[in-house]
Amino acid sequence: MLSKKTKYGIKALTYLARRDNNEPVQIAEIAKSEHISIKFLESILLLLRNSGFLGAKKGKGGGYYLIKDPKDISMAKVYRILEGPIALLPCASHNFYERCDDCDDETTCAARRLMTEVRDNTLKILESNSLADIAF
User: Fold this and answer.
1) How far apart are CA 136 and CA 131, in angstroms?
2) Alpha-carbon separation of residue 47 from 51, 82, 86, 109 (angstroms)
3) How far is residue 9's CA from residue 47's CA, in Å, rounded to a whole number?
4) Contact, 86 vs 96, CB < 8 A?
5) Taking a C-beta distance cutoff of 8 angstroms, is the pair 12, 33 a contact?
6) Residue 101 DSSP symbol
7) pLDDT class for 103, splitting at 50, 70, 90?
8) pLDDT value at 61 more than 90
9) Is 50 exposed, middle or buried (0-12, 13-18, 19+ CB in 10 A)?
10) CA nearest 115: which of 80, 97, 91?
11) Residue-averaged pLDDT of the chain
């Protein structure tokens, strides 16, 4: 199941993408509009800023803003930043691979085969959608 952190991160990015201008937006405005706790949203926006999706301006007129065009923000990248691996099993992950302790042979593991298919289809959907695709 998608975590609240990822859901709220997507909602915040979508909010910023839908604005007519790219002026900084205060956290409180995003939080109120999207029904997200300010404290929780602060940590999410900081993570997105540190990952290169957002910029921040301090002081009067400050806030967060997109530093990339929404069409250049892959939802697969956003998902990985906020949620972590796309695969549901570590042995089926491209970027976070780990061998399962209880598995004798990955090549014959039915769970791994199924979860690899789930990963591939999920990745295909996430990679084919940008922030612009879902925001407008």
Assistant:
1) 9
2) 6, 8, 18, 36
3) 9
4) no
5) no
6) T
7) confident
8) no
9) exposed
10) 91
11) 95
Measured over all CA atoms, what is the biggest interatomic distance in the chain, rounded to whole angstroms?
60
Token couple for 14: 């979508």
Cα–Cα distance measured from residue 136 to residue 126, given in angstroms and rounded to the nearest whole number: 16
Examine the pLDDT at 94 and tell me if it is beyond 90. Answer: no
Q: CA 64, CA 30: separation in Å to the nearest integer?
A: 10
Residue 60 is given by DSSP the state T
Using the predicted structure, report yes or no on whether residue 95 has a pLDDT greater than 90: no
Provide the pLDDT for residue 79. Answer: 97
> What residues does 130 pair with on adjacent strands?
74
Locate tokens 């930043």: which residue?
A: 81
Mean pLDDT of 14-22: 94
CB 61 within 8 A of CB 24: yes
Residue with tokens 């970027």: 95
